[in-house]
């Protein structure tokens, strides 16, 4: 298809920037940003611009690999698929279906995530399926469900941000993680609005802020309670809104009143005058928003922490109103859609609950199976990985690299090595794929069609722009082939089409009537419109925006326009009221002590993405971000006797990592930061604490106790 331009979307983060791809006669692909797509409006970050480099990378897998005599050697597709089917079937026979695990990824398209959930439950009959999106945003999802009765990352489009009055951005370094989004915040400031950033580090995002609060890692919950305390003390509660649209205020108010400002200053290290200034900036404008990201979410109390920020919005009447609200900045490319359609341990398509009998009946009917045959909820991501080699004997892994991205990664690496059988589908030989018994080379974003759902809840069509290299198949083909082999006489492969639109048509029916209702969305609409916001049921809509019309005989049928803005009339709870969370402060699971006196927090850098499986294969990105580092304050560096670039060992109760020192006054003296994109000696997740949030089961990546050691050259 030389020189034909295909409009599509970036393979990486949840912004899902629009881009045009043009295949070249030399086999390459050019990428140009799409000015018509309202999310990135003609901008791309370096990751998006260089994404085609992975398509043609010399380290791309082009043949299935099977382990033979201890090494991975090329094999035919038939041989590799047979080996996987045999491995899973053997485990199922010898140990039962729950001994087969399935682990997915937040980068999988909606169609793949949907099919993977169905594959686990219908073909393998296992409850043991979860995905790496559990590490990304599940605390915000849990808090949103509790408060609003619905979880959609942003309940409004990004284009609302410049028109609000103040945004409090909690634990997000979007200037590095999703750079094109920064322009919405710049426009906010040009319009007279203000930006408050809460982060232990003076990040590139914090540098843009009107006010930067730098709490100790793991204390954002106390910070939010302290701000709510001041809101009450200063008479800034929107009493009418609280009475009409919320429930549970008295308990939340009582909890906040126990967190007076000086107490909060002692916990967080944020001076009281800064707390007062944040409240003033947030409360004085007519409209305001709070946006959270991984900072408050990746904690052993992440659900409560996000709940405390939602409380602040509810008490001040800043939720479910135009240009005001709470939102979560989802991280992974399809982190939102990936959690809506069934690859999460406790969910069925359409954001239905697996333990809801009506939901089971509905989905079972679409799948043509007995509702009683569907397994119940399984383990969460870390718990699933931790059970490998013990309860779970075989694992099918698609689109994830837990050897680098899981907390307590050295332990997880050992668990993976102890499996009876591991099969991995990936585009390159990731650190996890290196441990597999069978590796299948699969298609990438530009080589396949499918939908994703970005952080705004906007469903998008990613289009195939080029043909994959010879010898590569799609994840959908893999599931079809495995279903054929494992289903025997039952013909289960018929339920696993290889055409993405066919899968989406079934997903529409499975999601119909559920919280994340996609039934009114079609590939035709997605091709014509710049995405459609869910919920979008079949038939006429009542929310804002004009629907398209199509003739049907003499009857005009109006398509639902989708729902860009949620909760304007009522919240999605049974009585329509939002719920306050009665939360109180508690420390991180692991606080500094004499042996481990410093806090470690982890995160991302602009030129790498997640475990780096793709971006570490791009020369331009490697030149910009060649390896891990330990960011620390000059006072800490002086105590250690470390100069810029010196190797520093960071030691936690789980292991030891070594990386060069990067010394800056932009971090608290009691805290060090490491990016988590690299394997090996500098692997940040060797150190991180898998303490789980009791509701979301999200690990505490953002705070653990460590000590630093100088490393002799
Ligand atoms: Fe891709 Fe995210 Fe960069 Fe946009 S911001 S180009 S979606 S990585």
Description:
- The chain has 24 helices and 32 strands.
- With 713 residues, the protein is α/β, with parallel strands linked by helices.
- Strand 6 (100-104), helix 4 (110-124) and strand 7 form a beta-alpha-beta unit.
- The longest helix is centred in the first third of the chain and has 19 residues, at 77-95.
- The termini are far apart.
- Residues 541-556 have low confidence and may be disordered.
- It binds iron/sulfur cluster.
- Residues 3-59 form the 4Fe-4S Mo/W bis-MGD-type domain.
- This is Molybdopterin oxidoreductase family protein.
Brief account:
With 713 residues, the chain is α/β, with parallel strands linked by helices.
């Amino acid at each position: 298809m030389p020189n034909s331009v295909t409009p599509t979307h970036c393979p990486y983060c949840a912004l899902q920037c629009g881009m045009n791809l043009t295949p070249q006669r030399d086999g390459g692909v050019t990428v140009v940003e799409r000015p018509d797509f309202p999310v990135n409006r003609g901008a791309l970050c370096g990751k998006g611009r260089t994404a085609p480099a992975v398509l043609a990378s010399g380290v791309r897998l082009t043949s299935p690999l099977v382990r033979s005599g201890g090494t991975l050697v090329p094999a035919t597709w038939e041989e590799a698929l047979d080996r996987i089917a045999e491995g899973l079937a053997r485990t199922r026979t010898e140990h039962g279906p729950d001994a087969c695990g399935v682990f997915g990824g937040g980068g999988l398209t909606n169609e793949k995530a949907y099919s993977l959930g169905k594959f686990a439950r219908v073909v393998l009959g296992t409850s043991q399926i979860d995905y790496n999106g559990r590490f990304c945003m599940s605390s915000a999802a849990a808090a949103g469900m509790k408060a609003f009765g619905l979880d959609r990352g942003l309940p409004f489009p990004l284009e609302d941000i410049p028109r609000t009055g103040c945004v409090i951005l909690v634990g997000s370094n979007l200037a590095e993680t999703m750079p094109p989004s920064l322009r919405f915040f710049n426009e906010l400031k040009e319009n007279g609005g203000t930006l408050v950033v809460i982060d232990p580090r003076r990040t590139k995002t914090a540098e843009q802020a009107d006010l930067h609060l730098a709490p100790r890692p793991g204390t954002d919950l106390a910070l939010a309670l302290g701000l709510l305390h001041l809101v009450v003390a200063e008479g800034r509660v929107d009493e009418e809104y609280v009475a009409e649209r919320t429930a549970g205020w008295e308990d939340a108010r009582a909890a906040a009143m126990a967190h007076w400002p000086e107490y909060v200053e002692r916990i967080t290290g944020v001076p009281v005058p800064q707390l007062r200034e944040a409240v003033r900036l947030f409360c004085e404008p007519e409209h305001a928003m709070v946006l959270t990201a991984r900072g408050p979410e990746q904690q052993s109390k992440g659900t409560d922490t996000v709940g405390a920020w939602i409380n602040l919005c509810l008490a001040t009447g800043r939720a479910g109103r135009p240009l005001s609200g709470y939102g979560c900045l989802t991280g992974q490319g399809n982190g939102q859609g990936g959690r809506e359609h069934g690859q999460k341990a406790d969910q069925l398509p359409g954001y239905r609950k697996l333990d809801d009998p009506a939901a089971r009946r509905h989905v079972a009917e679409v799948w043509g199976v007995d509702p009683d045959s569907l397994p119940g909820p399984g383990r969460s991501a870390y718990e699933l990985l931790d059970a490998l080699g013990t309860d779970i004997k075989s694992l099918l892994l698609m689109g994830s690299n837990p050897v680098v991205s899981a907390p307590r990664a050295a332990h997880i690496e050992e668990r993976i090595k102890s499996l009876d059988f591991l099969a991995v589908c990936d585009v390159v030989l990731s650190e996890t794929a290196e441990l597999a018994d069978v590796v299948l080379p699969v298609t990438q974003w530009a080589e396949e069609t499918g939908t994703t759902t970005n952080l705004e809840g906007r469903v998008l069509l990613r289009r195939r722009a080029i043909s994959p290299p010879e010898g590569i198949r799609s994840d959908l083909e893999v599931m079809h082939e495995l279903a054929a082999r494992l289903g025997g006489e039952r013909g289960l492969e018929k339920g696993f089409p290889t055409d993405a639109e066919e899968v989406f048509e079934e997903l529409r029916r499975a999601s119909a009537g559920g919280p994340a209702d996609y039934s009114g969305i079609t590939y035709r609409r997605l091709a014509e419109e710049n995405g459609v916001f869910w919920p979008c049921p079949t038939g006429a809509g009542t929310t804002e925006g004009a629907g398209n019309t199509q003739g049907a005989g003499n009857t005009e049928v109006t398509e639902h326009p989708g729902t860009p803005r949620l909760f304007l009339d009522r919240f999605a709870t049974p009585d329509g009221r939002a719920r306050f969370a009665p939360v109180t402060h508690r420390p991180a699971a692991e606080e500094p002590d004499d042996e481990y006196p410093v806090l470690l927090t982890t995160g991302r850098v602009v030129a790498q993405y997640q475990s780096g499986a793709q971006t570490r294969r791009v020369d331009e990105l490697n030149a910009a971000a060649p390896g891990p580092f330990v960011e620390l304050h000059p006072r800490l560096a002086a105590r250690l006797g470390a100069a810029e670039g010196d190797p520093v060992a960071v030691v936690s109760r789980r292991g030891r990592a070594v990386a060069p020192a990067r010394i800056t006054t932009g971090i608290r003296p009691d805290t060090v930061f490491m990016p988590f994109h690299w394997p090996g000696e500098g692997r940040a997740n060797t150190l991180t604490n898998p303490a789980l949030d009791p509701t979301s089961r999200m690990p505490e990546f953002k705070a653990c106790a460590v000590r630093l050691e100088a490393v002799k050259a």
